[in-house]
Amino acid sequence: MSTSLLLPILLGLLVILAAGYFLFRDRKGIAPAAYHNGTLVPNGDPSTRSIPTRVAEKIFEPADFEFVRNSGSPEALNLFQRERRRLALLWLKHVRQQAGRVVRNHAQKVRMSKRLDPAGEFEIAVRYYSFLGICGLAWLLLHFLGPVTIRHLVRYAAGLSSRLPGLTNEATVALGGESDPLPEAGDRKWPF
Amino acid sequence: MHFSQQSLFWCGNSLEAIILLRLLYLRSFRKYLLFSSYLFLILVRSLVDLYVLQFHSELYSRVYWYFTEPLSSVLGSLVIFELYRNLLEQYPGAARIARRIIAIVFALLVSRFIVQVSSGQGWELAAKVMVLERDLRIVQSVFLVGILALIHHYALSVGRNLKGMIGGYGIYIGLQIMSITLRSQLGDSAQAWWIYVHPLCYLLVLGIWVVALWRYDPMPSAHREAGPELDYRTILGRTLAQLDEARSSLSKSVWP
């Protein structure tokens, strides 16, 4: 099937599905979030309550994982990993909902404004959807690797990147070139 | 015209007349002036088609391709204007932006068609009308998706009337794009099913409109935020800052 045939048919199908969904959906009203001076405040809806940063950090912290691993029980380790993954995914969902609420609240506030600026709205859309993209990526990583493995990977990657200049030098020397000594912090000369 | 075709034809016309009479009875004719005009003109168009077919059948092809078919495609844009007009009635800033964009895009599209027709031969007109119709429907579908996006993004409450108009017209546009594409690719072989599929689809859409417009249910009044109205730039700045904060908190937790 050629593209000139396929694309309009797909577009037509998409429009039918979107219109059909819109027609038959049963939209339940969403209670507007409570804001005070632009800051989200709890109003009874769990997604408006913010989770303390230390809780999020605890979910990803490898110390508990090391403790359970050292206990020597594979069942306990499996259970721990499953639970941590669930917690991390729940936390991610919560963060995504909060960002969604920020955007919805913005829309509620500005939708009647006469000074609505398309560029500003576009900027918000770009930032919000790129945030959702990052959330999607994080979801995939959390789902398939788990929070503790991600931390390990990040630490490994961070270690690798700090070793990268050294490795480049070693490779240069191995290929017969001259090593470029790494500058000390005090010796760094800026190009301007 | 076969009996089955005639039945479909008269069913469609009857439903259009029912909707128009109902709009008149409910006095919502003025509220949905563009939509009502669209329905009225489509009804007139059908009757003109029938008259020409019965009494001047040698002219039918010309009238169809030169007049009624392009007219109905262009008239379809009235529905899109109507949807935007009603949807954004209470939102002047968004309405102003949407009006300009829609007018520019439609003007460009129609200009392109006029240039194409004036530079080509007569026998190509049917193909050009089909291309125009397909292009117009595609543009309309983009605007319709835009309407759905606006409703979703700004959490706009939509009344039953507008919901039916949007849903019904969306289904109609989608089916039109698909059938025009298939017809232009398959040629005459598609004509056999086209004469049945097209009126059937249209009947489905008219059915949705009859149900949706049976009673007057306009857009609910938009809820204005309590308290002093903040400057748009201030709200924008705060929202962007909050999104940045959410992003950095996510990054810090997952990728410290």
Structure, explained:
The complex is a heterodimer of chains A (192) and B (256). Chain A is mainly α. Chain A has one domain (48-188). Helices cover 69% and strands 3% of the residues of chain A. Chain A has 6 helices and 2 strands. In chain A, strands 1-2 form a two-stranded antiparallel sheet. The radius of gyration of chain A is 25 Å and the shape is extended. The N and C termini of chain A lie far apart (58 Å). Mean pLDDT of chain A is 73; it is low at 29-44 and 180-192. With 256 residues, chain B is mostly helical. Helix content of chain B is 79%, strand content 0%. Chain B contains 8 helices and no strands. In chain B, α1 runs parallel beside α7, α3 (60-87) runs antiparallel to α4 and α3 (60-87) runs parallel beside α5. Chain B starts with a helix and ends with a helix. At the A-B interface, α1, α2, α4, α5 and α6 of A face α4, α5, α6 and α8 of B.
Entry summary:
By secondary structure, chain A is mainly α. Chain A contains six helices and two strands. Chain A has one domain.
Sheet of most strands of chain A = 2 strands, antiparallel
Query: Which overall shape of chain B is indicated by the principal axes computed on the Cα atoms?
Result: globular
The tally of helices of chain B reads: 8
Q: What Rg of chain B, in angstroms, do the CA atoms define? A: 22 Å
- Please trace the helix and strand order of chain A, writing H or E for each element: HEEHHHHH
Largest interface: A-B, 64 and 63 residues
Assess the beta-strand content of chain A as a share of residues: under 5%
What is the count of DSSP helices of chain A, taking H or I runs of 4+ residues? Answer: 6
Quickly give the structural class of chain B.
mainly alpha
Percent in helix of chain A: 55-70%
Strand tally of chain B is 0
Largest sheet of chain B: none
The radius of gyration over CA of chain A amounts to: 25 Å
- What is the string of helix and strand elements of chain B? HHHHHHHH
Proportion of β residues of chain B? Answer: under 5%
Q: Kindly report the oligomeric state of this protein.
A: heterodimer
Q: What is the approximate shape of chain A? A: extended
What's the average pLDDT of chain A?
73
- What is the count of β-strands of chain A? 2
Mean pLDDT of chain B: 82
Q: What class, by secondary structure content of chain A? A: mainly alpha
